[in-house]
Specification:
This protein is mostly helical and 329 residues long. It has one domain. It is built from 14 helices and two strands; from the N terminus they run H-H-E-E-H-H-H-H-H-H-H-H-H-H-H-H. A two-stranded antiparallel sheet has the order 1-2.
Length: 329
Protein backbone atom coordinates (compact mmCIF):
# COMPACT_ATOMS: atom_id res chain seq x y z
CA UNK A 1 0.00 0.00 0.00
CA UNK A 2 1.33 3.43 -0.88
CA UNK A 3 2.24 5.90 1.83
CA UNK A 4 -0.58 8.22 0.76
CA UNK A 5 -3.29 5.61 1.18
CA UNK A 6 -2.28 4.61 4.69
CA UNK A 7 -3.06 7.97 6.36
CA UNK A 8 -6.37 8.24 4.48
CA UNK A 9 -7.49 4.81 5.62
CA UNK A 10 -6.31 5.42 9.16
CA UNK A 11 -8.38 8.60 9.13
CA UNK A 12 -11.32 6.61 7.79
CA UNK A 13 -11.09 4.19 10.71
CA UNK A 14 -11.59 7.08 13.13
CA UNK A 15 -13.82 9.32 11.07
CA UNK A 16 -16.25 6.66 9.85
CA UNK A 17 -17.86 5.93 13.25
CA UNK A 18 -17.79 9.61 14.20
CA UNK A 19 -19.50 10.64 10.96
CA UNK A 20 -22.08 7.89 11.38
CA UNK A 21 -22.81 8.91 14.97
CA UNK A 22 -23.21 12.57 14.09
CA UNK A 23 -25.33 11.82 11.04
CA UNK A 24 -27.58 9.44 12.98
CA UNK A 25 -28.12 11.99 15.77
CA UNK A 26 -28.85 14.70 13.23
CA UNK A 27 -31.24 12.48 11.27
CA UNK A 28 -33.05 11.49 14.45
CA UNK A 29 -33.50 15.11 15.51
CA UNK A 30 -34.77 16.05 12.06
CA UNK A 31 -37.18 13.10 11.87
CA UNK A 32 -38.52 13.81 15.35
CA UNK A 33 -39.11 17.44 14.40
CA UNK A 34 -40.76 16.57 11.06
CA UNK A 35 -41.84 12.91 11.09
CA UNK A 36 -43.02 11.80 7.62
CA UNK A 37 -46.75 11.21 7.74
CA UNK A 38 -46.99 12.60 11.26
CA UNK A 39 -45.74 11.34 14.62
CA UNK A 40 -48.63 8.89 15.01
CA UNK A 41 -47.46 6.95 11.96
CA UNK A 42 -44.27 6.04 13.76
CA UNK A 43 -45.57 5.68 17.32
CA UNK A 44 -46.36 2.39 19.01
CA UNK A 45 -47.36 1.58 22.58
CA UNK A 46 -45.02 -0.69 24.51
CA UNK A 47 -45.69 -3.10 27.37
CA UNK A 48 -45.62 -0.25 29.91
CA UNK A 49 -48.36 1.62 28.07
CA UNK A 50 -45.81 4.24 27.01
CA UNK A 51 -45.29 5.60 23.49
CA UNK A 52 -42.23 4.39 21.61
CA UNK A 53 -41.15 5.82 18.27
CA UNK A 54 -39.84 3.77 15.38
CA UNK A 55 -37.90 6.75 14.02
CA UNK A 56 -34.68 5.48 15.58
CA UNK A 57 -34.46 2.89 12.80
CA UNK A 58 -34.60 5.22 9.78
CA UNK A 59 -32.23 7.61 11.56
CA UNK A 60 -29.66 4.87 12.18
CA UNK A 61 -29.95 3.59 8.60
CA UNK A 62 -29.68 7.05 7.08
CA UNK A 63 -26.77 8.05 9.31
CA UNK A 64 -24.82 4.90 8.54
CA UNK A 65 -25.47 5.16 4.80
CA UNK A 66 -24.42 8.82 4.72
CA UNK A 67 -21.23 8.08 6.64
CA UNK A 68 -20.39 5.21 4.29
CA UNK A 69 -20.72 7.62 1.40
CA UNK A 70 -18.51 10.27 3.00
CA UNK A 71 -15.85 8.35 4.93
CA UNK A 72 -12.44 8.97 3.34
CA UNK A 73 -10.27 6.11 2.18
CA UNK A 74 -12.97 3.57 1.35
CA UNK A 75 -12.62 1.89 -2.05
CA UNK A 76 -15.51 2.68 -4.35
CA UNK A 77 -16.84 -0.89 -4.40
CA UNK A 78 -16.90 -1.19 -0.60
CA UNK A 79 -18.53 2.23 -0.30
CA UNK A 80 -21.24 1.35 -2.83
CA UNK A 81 -21.90 -2.01 -1.19
CA UNK A 82 -22.34 -0.47 2.27
CA UNK A 83 -24.67 2.26 1.01
CA UNK A 84 -26.73 -0.25 -0.98
CA UNK A 85 -27.00 -2.62 1.99
CA UNK A 86 -28.16 0.16 4.32
CA UNK A 87 -30.60 1.74 1.89
CA UNK A 88 -32.17 -1.45 0.60
CA UNK A 89 -32.49 -3.32 3.89
CA UNK A 90 -33.62 -0.16 5.68
CA UNK A 91 -36.29 0.57 3.07
CA UNK A 92 -37.77 -2.93 3.05
CA UNK A 93 -37.56 -3.12 6.84
CA UNK A 94 -39.32 0.22 7.15
CA UNK A 95 -42.07 -1.00 4.82
CA UNK A 96 -42.67 -3.97 7.13
CA UNK A 97 -42.58 -1.68 10.19
CA UNK A 98 -45.32 0.56 8.83
CA UNK A 99 -47.47 -1.83 6.81
CA UNK A 100 -47.03 -5.14 8.65
CA UNK A 101 -49.74 -6.51 10.91
CA UNK A 102 -47.53 -8.78 13.01
CA UNK A 103 -49.84 -11.75 12.40
CA UNK A 104 -47.08 -13.83 10.77
CA UNK A 105 -43.57 -14.24 12.13
CA UNK A 106 -40.34 -15.82 10.99
CA UNK A 107 -39.41 -17.39 7.70
CA UNK A 108 -41.77 -20.28 8.33
CA UNK A 109 -44.74 -18.00 8.96
CA UNK A 110 -44.22 -15.73 5.97
CA UNK A 111 -43.20 -18.41 3.48
CA UNK A 112 -46.00 -20.65 4.71
CA UNK A 113 -48.49 -17.86 4.03
CA UNK A 114 -46.95 -17.32 0.60
CA UNK A 115 -47.39 -21.02 -0.20
CA UNK A 116 -51.12 -20.55 0.41
CA UNK A 117 -51.32 -17.51 -1.84
CA UNK A 118 -51.05 -14.84 0.87
CA UNK A 119 -48.36 -12.23 0.22
CA UNK A 120 -47.42 -10.75 3.60
CA UNK A 121 -45.30 -7.67 4.13
CA UNK A 122 -42.73 -9.98 5.69
CA UNK A 123 -42.56 -12.02 2.48
CA UNK A 124 -42.01 -8.83 0.50
CA UNK A 125 -39.25 -7.89 2.92
CA UNK A 126 -37.59 -11.30 2.63
CA UNK A 127 -37.51 -11.00 -1.15
CA UNK A 128 -36.42 -7.38 -1.07
CA UNK A 129 -33.58 -7.94 1.38
CA UNK A 130 -32.48 -10.97 -0.61
CA UNK A 131 -32.29 -8.78 -3.72
CA UNK A 132 -30.46 -6.11 -1.71
CA UNK A 133 -27.89 -8.65 -0.57
CA UNK A 134 -27.33 -9.81 -4.13
CA UNK A 135 -26.96 -6.25 -5.43
CA UNK A 136 -24.53 -5.21 -2.69
CA UNK A 137 -22.54 -8.41 -3.21
CA UNK A 138 -22.33 -7.84 -6.96
CA UNK A 139 -20.94 -4.37 -6.27
CA UNK A 140 -18.11 -5.92 -4.24
CA UNK A 141 -17.23 -8.06 -7.25
CA UNK A 142 -15.74 -11.52 -7.54
CA UNK A 143 -16.77 -14.76 -9.18
CA UNK A 144 -20.17 -16.45 -8.79
CA UNK A 145 -19.21 -18.44 -5.66
CA UNK A 146 -18.08 -15.30 -3.86
CA UNK A 147 -21.06 -13.26 -5.01
CA UNK A 148 -23.43 -15.96 -3.69
CA UNK A 149 -21.52 -16.27 -0.42
CA UNK A 150 -21.40 -12.53 0.18
CA UNK A 151 -25.07 -12.10 -0.71
CA UNK A 152 -25.89 -14.67 1.96
CA UNK A 153 -23.81 -12.78 4.52
CA UNK A 154 -25.51 -9.46 3.77
CA UNK A 155 -29.10 -10.72 3.65
CA UNK A 156 -28.55 -13.19 6.50
CA UNK A 157 -26.94 -10.53 8.68
CA UNK A 158 -29.90 -8.23 8.11
CA UNK A 159 -32.38 -10.88 9.20
CA UNK A 160 -30.38 -12.20 12.14
CA UNK A 161 -29.83 -8.86 13.85
CA UNK A 162 -33.54 -8.14 13.56
CA UNK A 163 -34.27 -11.35 15.50
CA UNK A 164 -32.54 -9.80 18.51
CA UNK A 165 -34.52 -6.54 18.47
CA UNK A 166 -36.94 -7.83 21.12
CA UNK A 167 -35.62 -6.13 24.24
CA UNK A 168 -34.35 -2.58 24.77
CA UNK A 169 -30.78 -2.24 23.56
CA UNK A 170 -30.33 -5.94 22.76
CA UNK A 171 -29.87 -5.61 19.01
CA UNK A 172 -27.35 -2.79 19.48
CA UNK A 173 -25.38 -4.86 22.00
CA UNK A 174 -25.33 -7.84 19.64
CA UNK A 175 -24.22 -5.54 16.81
CA UNK A 176 -21.45 -4.12 19.00
CA UNK A 177 -20.23 -7.61 19.89
CA UNK A 178 -20.34 -8.79 16.28
CA UNK A 179 -18.67 -5.61 15.05
CA UNK A 180 -15.92 -5.92 17.64
CA UNK A 181 -15.18 -9.50 16.62
CA UNK A 182 -15.21 -8.50 12.97
CA UNK A 183 -12.85 -5.61 13.61
CA UNK A 184 -10.45 -7.97 15.38
CA UNK A 185 -10.68 -10.76 12.81
CA UNK A 186 -11.13 -8.79 9.60
CA UNK A 187 -7.93 -8.78 7.60
CA UNK A 188 -7.11 -6.26 4.90
CA UNK A 189 -7.58 -7.64 1.44
CA UNK A 190 -10.03 -8.51 -1.31
CA UNK A 191 -13.41 -10.05 -0.60
CA UNK A 192 -12.82 -13.03 -2.85
CA UNK A 193 -10.47 -15.11 -0.78
CA UNK A 194 -7.59 -14.36 -3.13
CA UNK A 195 -9.05 -16.33 -6.04
CA UNK A 196 -9.70 -13.21 -8.14
CA UNK A 197 -7.32 -10.26 -8.65
CA UNK A 198 -7.83 -7.41 -6.20
CA UNK A 199 -8.90 -4.97 -8.90
CA UNK A 200 -12.49 -6.24 -9.44
CA UNK A 201 -13.15 -6.25 -5.69
CA UNK A 202 -11.12 -3.87 -3.56
CA UNK A 203 -8.23 -1.85 -4.91
CA UNK A 204 -6.46 -1.89 -1.58
CA UNK A 205 -6.66 -3.23 1.97
CA UNK A 206 -9.54 -2.08 4.14
CA UNK A 207 -9.43 -3.37 7.72
CA UNK A 208 -12.67 -4.70 9.19
CA UNK A 209 -12.61 -2.03 11.90
CA UNK A 210 -13.11 0.67 9.25
CA UNK A 211 -16.17 -0.99 7.74
CA UNK A 212 -17.79 -2.37 10.90
CA UNK A 213 -17.28 0.92 12.73
CA UNK A 214 -19.68 2.80 10.46
CA UNK A 215 -22.90 0.93 11.36
CA UNK A 216 -21.78 0.68 14.98
CA UNK A 217 -21.23 4.43 15.23
CA UNK A 218 -24.80 5.05 14.06
CA UNK A 219 -26.25 2.45 16.43
CA UNK A 220 -24.34 3.53 19.52
CA UNK A 221 -25.27 7.17 18.94
CA UNK A 222 -28.91 6.21 19.59
CA UNK A 223 -28.44 3.57 22.27
CA UNK A 224 -29.68 5.82 25.11
CA UNK A 225 -33.04 6.28 23.40
CA UNK A 226 -33.26 2.53 22.84
CA UNK A 227 -32.32 1.55 26.41
CA UNK A 228 -34.60 4.26 27.79
CA UNK A 229 -37.53 2.77 25.83
CA UNK A 230 -38.21 6.06 24.10
CA UNK A 231 -37.39 4.61 20.67
CA UNK A 232 -36.54 1.34 18.98
CA UNK A 233 -34.63 0.25 15.90
CA UNK A 234 -37.53 -1.72 14.45
CA UNK A 235 -37.02 -3.63 11.23
CA UNK A 236 -35.72 -0.57 9.39
CA UNK A 237 -32.81 -0.04 11.75
CA UNK A 238 -31.98 -3.63 12.66
CA UNK A 239 -32.15 -4.86 9.06
CA UNK A 240 -29.99 -1.99 7.79
CA UNK A 241 -27.32 -2.34 10.47
CA UNK A 242 -27.23 -6.12 10.14
CA UNK A 243 -26.89 -5.86 6.36
CA UNK A 244 -24.01 -3.40 6.71
CA UNK A 245 -22.22 -5.68 9.16
CA UNK A 246 -22.69 -8.51 6.67
CA UNK A 247 -21.21 -6.32 3.94
CA UNK A 248 -18.30 -5.46 6.20
CA UNK A 249 -17.65 -9.17 6.78
CA UNK A 250 -17.89 -9.81 3.04
CA UNK A 251 -15.31 -7.12 2.29
CA UNK A 252 -12.78 -7.86 5.03
CA UNK A 253 -12.75 -11.60 5.79
CA UNK A 254 -11.02 -14.35 3.81
CA UNK A 255 -13.29 -16.90 2.18
CA UNK A 256 -12.85 -19.44 4.99
CA UNK A 257 -13.92 -16.82 7.54
CA UNK A 258 -16.92 -15.82 5.49
CA UNK A 259 -18.05 -19.42 5.15
CA UNK A 260 -17.79 -19.86 8.93
CA UNK A 261 -19.77 -16.67 9.61
CA UNK A 262 -22.49 -17.61 7.13
CA UNK A 263 -22.77 -21.06 8.68
CA UNK A 264 -23.27 -19.44 12.08
CA UNK A 265 -25.95 -17.14 10.68
CA UNK A 266 -27.80 -20.08 9.13
CA UNK A 267 -27.66 -22.12 12.34
CA UNK A 268 -28.90 -19.27 14.53
CA UNK A 269 -31.65 -18.33 12.07
CA UNK A 270 -32.87 -21.93 11.91
CA UNK A 271 -32.70 -22.22 15.70
CA UNK A 272 -34.85 -19.10 16.10
CA UNK A 273 -37.77 -21.00 14.57
CA UNK A 274 -37.65 -23.50 17.46
CA UNK A 275 -35.78 -21.90 20.35
CA UNK A 276 -36.51 -18.72 22.31
CA UNK A 277 -33.38 -16.56 22.31
CA UNK A 278 -34.87 -14.62 25.21
CA UNK A 279 -35.22 -17.74 27.36
CA UNK A 280 -31.68 -18.84 26.57
CA UNK A 281 -30.35 -15.40 27.49
CA UNK A 282 -32.43 -15.32 30.68
CA UNK A 283 -31.09 -18.69 31.83
CA UNK A 284 -27.44 -17.86 31.10
CA UNK A 285 -26.11 -15.51 33.84
CA UNK A 286 -23.40 -13.69 31.81
CA UNK A 287 -25.78 -13.14 28.88
CA UNK A 288 -28.58 -12.10 31.24
CA UNK A 289 -26.32 -9.54 32.92
CA UNK A 290 -25.25 -8.11 29.58
CA UNK A 291 -28.85 -8.05 28.34
CA UNK A 292 -29.97 -6.02 31.36
CA UNK A 293 -27.00 -3.63 31.34
CA UNK A 294 -28.32 -0.07 31.07
CA UNK A 295 -31.99 -1.09 30.88
CA UNK A 296 -34.85 0.19 32.99
CA UNK A 297 -36.13 -2.19 35.67
CA UNK A 298 -38.85 -4.51 34.45
CA UNK A 299 -42.18 -3.57 36.04
CA UNK A 300 -44.20 -6.37 37.64
CA UNK A 301 -47.98 -6.54 38.07
CA UNK A 302 -49.62 -3.76 40.06
CA UNK A 303 -49.00 -4.18 43.75
CA UNK A 304 -46.26 -6.77 43.34
CA UNK A 305 -42.48 -6.48 43.34
CA UNK A 306 -40.81 -5.79 40.04
CA UNK A 307 -40.47 -8.78 37.82
CA UNK A 308 -37.01 -10.27 37.57
CA UNK A 309 -34.88 -8.52 34.95
CA UNK A 310 -35.07 -10.14 31.55
CA UNK A 311 -38.25 -12.08 32.26
CA UNK A 312 -40.32 -12.94 29.24
CA UNK A 313 -43.68 -11.39 28.50
CA UNK A 314 -43.82 -7.91 29.96
CA UNK A 315 -40.21 -7.13 29.13
CA UNK A 316 -40.73 -7.31 25.40
CA UNK A 317 -39.26 -4.52 23.30
CA UNK A 318 -41.68 -5.35 20.51
CA UNK A 319 -44.31 -2.59 20.31
CA UNK A 320 -47.89 -3.55 20.96
CA UNK A 321 -49.91 -2.96 17.80
CA UNK A 322 -53.68 -2.88 18.16
CA UNK A 323 -55.22 -6.09 16.96
CA UNK A 324 -52.01 -8.14 17.13
CA UNK A 325 -50.24 -10.21 19.73
CA UNK A 326 -46.49 -10.03 20.04
CA UNK A 327 -44.91 -13.46 20.28
CA UNK A 328 -41.15 -12.96 20.14
CA UNK A 329 -38.88 -15.96 19.58
Amino acid sequence: MSGGRAPRRAAGSALGPALAAGAARGAYALLRARPPGGAATWTRTNHRGEPVTLLEGPAAAAGAALAAGLTPGLPGRARAALVTAAAGAGAFGGYDDLAGSGGRRGFRGHLGALAHGEVTTGAVKIGGIGATGLAASALLGGGPPDVALNAGLIAGGANLLNLFDLRPGRAIKVAALAGGLLAAAGRPGPATGGTVPAGPVLTGPVPGVTLAGIPLGAALALVREDLGERAMLGDAGANALGAMLGAAAAASLPRSGRVAVLAGIVVLTAASEKVSFTKVIQRTPPLHWLDMLGRRPVAGPAGSPAASPGSTGPATHQPVVPGTTASPP
